[in-house]
Structure of Transcriptional regulator with XRE-family HTH domain:
Amino acid sequence: MVDSELPRTRLDQLMKQKRMTLRDLMDRYREITGTEMSERQAYRWVNGDLKKRPYAHAQAALEQIFGEAASRLLGPAVGSGLVLQASPMETIGLPPDHERYDWQRQVIARSAMRAREFLSRTEVSNVGTETLDQLTDDVRRLTVAYQQEPLEALVGDMSETQNQVFGLLEGRQRPKQSRDLYLLAGVASGLMARASHDIGASDEAMVHARAAFAAADNAGHDGLKAWVKGLQSLIAYWAGRYSDSIKYARQGGEFAERSRNTSAVWLASGEARSLAALGQFDDAREAVDRATEARELVRRDDLDDLGGFCTFNRPRQLYYAAEALAWAGSDAAASTERFALEAIAAYETAPAGDRAFGDEAGTRCALAVARIARSEFDGAADAMTEVLELPTGQRTHGVVTAVGHVQRSLAAIEAEGRALNELGDSMRAFTSQRLALPQ
């Protein structure tokens, strides 16, 4: 039967949608805050019988449960206000003065019932414009901050943002809002994948990456699908699974072909690194050239507009080219050094939002490898100076692995000298103290 009593507040409206009772609300409140809420207090919140706003911690608990601002939750219901509807097949009684079966009126009444149900479902949304805008701002901030700040300062916000988006997707939204939420869910999961990778947890990183791809699929966003494949290629590369890295990069090709966002450049650049790591240097150089061609055809999209880790800028492209060629040793040392120096110069003149401590460190490691191959040991030590000064909180798995590449290059040569010994000692000390999040 139709619930004849319209919701008095947005909170009441959402609880009816979710089939929540007062007891459910009280239990969730206790789980979050560790304190009890009286049934009378819960009733006053739901019915809007408040003389003043609840305390800040209570408002925060409400926002965590329902994913909307407390001011909105304690305010009036939105949309048509209808929440529970009768089944479309339920018999609708006719006035008693009808002496015969009025089938036309029955059809019209049923049609009106369906129209009311459609209206309630399309107008009632658990995501307002302000909520979506705020989430987008939060994700944009994290994609930029991730490249510049220690992970331990961001991982809490990243996890909370991912949880908030997931929670909202469990509710009801208009199609456009759902698409936008899935895009944000994909990026938030991608950031968590990168965070897992940066502490060396590649299996967990792939779980988050698969969640990101599922979100991209639900959003119908080819650019996001290509971006996730680039992320999976990166995770596999730093885990030493070069064939898998190439596979992911190539899987992303079909999506990149349709979207033409900067992920197309990332996929070709990532493939180049892994091909080179397997000793396929001619193919690697061809992939570097494909990345250059892809840059000329780029059409930026809403993912690129988030900036930071979500867009593959030119300094990063130059870094990938340098690292790919660094695998070829002395045969490509001159080209490696040229790309690395171009990348360093590009980063130093780039806007603040394009800086990335991990990629810049990787660039300097590639430069050091090239100089070691040319027996320019003082130059190699100079290239590593800023890398070895990174604080422990920025010694991510990728950075430490890149430093390990320099160590192996140094160990492969037969030479002695003060510069070599000091560089070797500094790198051993660096890799012994890497990023580890607080327990």
User: Anything to note?
Assistant: The chain has 21 helices and no strands.
